[in-house]
Design brief:
The structure is a homodimer of 344-residue chains. Chain A has helices at residues 31-39, 46-61, 68-83, 90-104, 111-141, 167-176, 193-204, 217-222, 248-257, 289-292, 334-342, and strands spanning 4-7, 10-14, 25-28, 149-152, 182-186, 209-212, 228-231, 235-237, 242-245, 262-265, 271-272, 293-294, 298-299, 306-307, 312-315, 322-325, 328-330. The first copy, chain A, is of the alpha/beta class and 344 residues long. In chain A, the strands form 4 sheets. Chain A has a 7-stranded mixed beta sheet, with helices on both faces. In chain A, strand 16 (322-325) and strand 17 (328-330) form a beta hairpin. In chain A, helix 1 packs antiparallel against helix 2 (46-61). The radius of gyration of chain A is 20 Å and the shape is globular. The interface between A and B is large, with 55 and 55 residues.
Chain lengths: 344, 344
């Protein structure tokens, strides 16, 4: 199962805003389509938007240009345009930079060749993402016992990556290994990725799942119904502070209070070692109507009521038990151990 | 502003499930209407359902009976019928018992007189509730400083009582006293009473309010944006354990972690001194479709996905800073101080 497809030189994606009611595939025909798909969360999940954005650059590169110089100038603009679409997840900037470095190293070559270079790099990022997900699953699976009840927040599954996911890759690996596990999925207001995407993809893959409202996780913890928590990440600092979907921090505080292990699963590309602390991570604020309505379909508060809608929050390293990466599991002290594993 | 009206011997109520989109008044013509209004949460809020249920007994009593004995037998059945409609809030059972004791003390009197007794008792409970709310507001106001940012969960306002509310009575009293306060209202999934009712009634009464998703409260606490938390209660035990709307416990854990005062506001009728601990409080579980959909209007997860939907949770006394009652503010040690103030 895939959230995006690159086939016959064309880029397709599932419109995740239509899930779980409909499975709608759309084609990205222009750079602006890609930007809009990311902005509207039709394509979302930190690793996936990195892969998708790299392909978007290829789609862009197929357009007409007057010269190699013109190509390079407009290419640089396209990179910035996509990068600023969503500020919090670092994988987007990371993937764009990777394509950019490959192009810049070859900027004297003919445009037809630069196009090939972009495509090759996008495909390399894509293939690598599949592999990184699988490795996260392998490392994470070692932490899971048969009988575990695992809570997750938002969606860090195959809909968030081009592979099996990050947090959910661990769950899929444990399930495939025959371990009897059960997942509690936080619905994840305001945009309900936990309900619409996680509960949907887990049940589709026959992993036992129970959907809860975000505010129910704490009482399940108090009743000893949750053994472990695994979430994804949008950016992780050098100190191990983790930006992830809004609500993650509340789960982490509750996990600490109830002494339940809190794991974060993410590939190396989610780490941003240029940032020392979580305070430096830019947090995207989205439209207030996402809170005043549900998916724009039901009004739950009058338009004149003020709202607050940060899309992410930062969980400080002290609340994180370990970070499951494609290179192994990182335990505290995070500063030293992240440097050792990721900072090469 | 009132959530129910008793006028010309007829009982009317705002259908709270239609708020904030429409203000629909309905009439309770039969006992079954009252039961259904409470069950469907058209009338909700622990103190309000007590008052409303007492009036429902009067509406019932107007029906034909063959004898005094017949009246008493059917009256007892009506009491049980209403009492079992919602199990968690104790005010419902408390109000019904109060009417029942008044009737039983006079059971040899003619039916016409018994009807008057029921009506008088319902009106006494109603008048008393207005007064209790006002007193809670007075006592609670002393705890509020100008400049405070106050978080509340669910709705404990005039829509939850027949007066100004419990938690919101404190807020209204502080606002009326000219203190500059600002409220953060948790939307309160699954039924969104915080968004639909609290944000609506506060903005209607010109109290500055910001609506948030339940999972955003923790990060506001971490950013020092919340000075105090005030919530209502559905039942409070002799030890000070508090049953309230699902999600309250998560707020309380986060409040403790961030060292923010966590206040509960409730009249004496919310205390159930027959219960030693919160484990004994019956917790209503509601239909899973309340979680799989939003207000039955938007499907957010496939029907086959399992869900969990406890309507309440229990916050242990150790997480409660103080309980604001109509008789004064109760501080720890709760067991002794609740007994002193309430257990007379």
């Amino acid at each position: 199962m895939n959230a995006i497809k690159f086939k016959n030189n064309r880029l397709f994606y599932i419109d995740q805003t239509a899930l779980p009611v409909k499975e709608v595939w759309k084609e990205c025909l222009r750079l602006e389509d890609g930007w809009s798909a990311i902005k509207k969360l039709e394509v979302r999940g930190a690793p996936l938007i990195g892969v998708f954005a790299a392909y978007c650059l290829y789609i862009w590169s197929k357009g007409p240009v007057s010269s190699g110089k013109d190509f390079m100038r407009r290419f640089a603009r396209a990179v910035v345009y996509l990068r600023e679409c969503r500020p919090t997840a670092v994988n987007l900037a990371w993937a764009l930079k990777r394509v950019m470095l490959a192009v810049e190293a070859n900027q004297d070559k003919p445009v037809t060749q630069l196009r090939e270079i972009i495509l090759n790099e996008a495909q390399a990022i894509h293939d690598e993402d599949v592999l990184l997900c699988a490795r996260i699953g392998e490392y994470g699976n070692k932490l899971i016992k048969s009988g575990d009840n695992i809570l997750t927040h938002c969606n860090a599954g195959f809909l968030a990556t081009s592979g099996d996911g990050t947090a959910l890759s661990v769950i899929y690996a444990a399930h495939a290994a025959g371990k009897k596990i059960h997942v509690f999925a936080d619905e994840t207001r305001p945009l309900l990725q936990g309900a619409r995407l996680t509960a949907w993809e887990l049940s589709r893959n026959n992993v036992p799942v129970t959907l809860i409202c975000d505010n129910m996780a704490a009482v399940l913890m108090a009743k000893d119904k949750i053994d472990k928590i695994i979430v994804g990440a949008d950016r992780i600092t050098a100190a191990g502070d983790v930006a992830n979907k809004i609500g993650t921090y509340s789960v982490a505080v509750n996990a600490a209070y109830h002494k339940i292990p809190f794991y974060v699963a993410a590939p190396f590309s989610t780490f941003d070692l240029t940032l020392k602390s979580g305070d430096e991570i830019p947090i995207e604020e989205r439209a207030h109507d996402e809170v005043r309505t549900v998916l724009g379909k039901v009004t739950i508060a009058p338009k004149k009521v003020n709202a607050y809608n940060p899309s992410f929050d930062v969980t400080p390293a002290k609340l994180v038990t370990a970070i499951i990466t494609d290179r192994g599991v990182v335990y505290p002290p995070f500063k030293q151990n992240i440097k050792k594993l990721i900072g090469q």
